């Protein structure tokens, strides 16, 4: 019996460009796993980090993933707060995340959002790497609408998140997040729109791998 190698789609994205939205839609359309925040849960367990390690003192975020998690109020970040505590370093976090990503799909086809997954799975034989981006105004507008914050707040968040994410990926992988040569597809969701972007990704998968 021939073993079927799972298809893995990784989506790296600029903050606010629709990565999570499109990732979930594509996973649903193709009947695949969608993997996002599960990676953080798995990483926290690997590093033996728990909410009990969080103190009531200074909660100022100093790591990239914590700062994003803390922004979204619907996520309980207490479990991950200790990611900023010594002796856990960003390199330890990235290595643990890499292990978690490799374990997360368990031999099943999956869409994996961000966290360096496109670099970690670069040599996977059935891998589609996608990078989504858009100009700051478009992304800030989406963030403003989704999270009910002011235009000024959303623009500030986009700018700060871009800086942190770019630095993190560069430091951890040695590659620039926006280097189109690192991806199979690089798409501007602000110009194409989310629906058309979804169609292009699905068509690419169909052309490359046939019917799913």
UniProtKB/TrEMBL annotation:
GO MF annotation list: kinase activity
Domain of life according to the entry: Bacteria
Family matches, as Pfam families: Cytidylate_kin2
Alphabetical keyword list: Kinase, Transferase
Name the UniProt record assigns to this protein: Cytidylate kinase-like family protein
Organism from which the protein derives: Clostridium estertheticum
């Amino acid at each position: 019996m021939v073993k079927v190698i799972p298809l893995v789609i990784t989506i790296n994205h600029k903050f606010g460009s629709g990565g999570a939205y499109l990732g979930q839609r594509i996973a649903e359309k193709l009947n695949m796993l969608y993997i996002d925040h599960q990676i953080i849960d798995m990483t926290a367990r690997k590093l033996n980090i728990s909410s009990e390690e969080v103190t009531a003192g200074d909660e100022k975020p100093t790591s990239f993933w914590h700062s994003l998690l803390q922004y979204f109020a619907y996520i309980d970040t207490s479990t991950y707060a200790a990611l900023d505590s010594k002796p856990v370093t960003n390199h330890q976090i990235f290595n643990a995340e890499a292990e978690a990503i490799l374990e997360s799909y368990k031999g099943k086809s999956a869409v994996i959002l961000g966290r360096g997954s496109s670099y970690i799975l670069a040599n996977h034989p059935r891998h589609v790497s996608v990078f989504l981006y858009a100009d700051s105004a478009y992304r800030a507008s989406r963030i403003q609408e989704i999270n009910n914050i002011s235009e000024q707040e959303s623009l500030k968040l986009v700018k700060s998140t871009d800086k942190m994410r770019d630095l993190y990926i560069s430091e951890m992988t040695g590659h620039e997040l926006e280097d189109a040569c690192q991806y199979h597809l690089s798409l501007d969701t602000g110009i194409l729109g989310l629906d058309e972007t979804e169609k292009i990704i699905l068509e690419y998968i169909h052309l490359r791998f046939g019917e799913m």
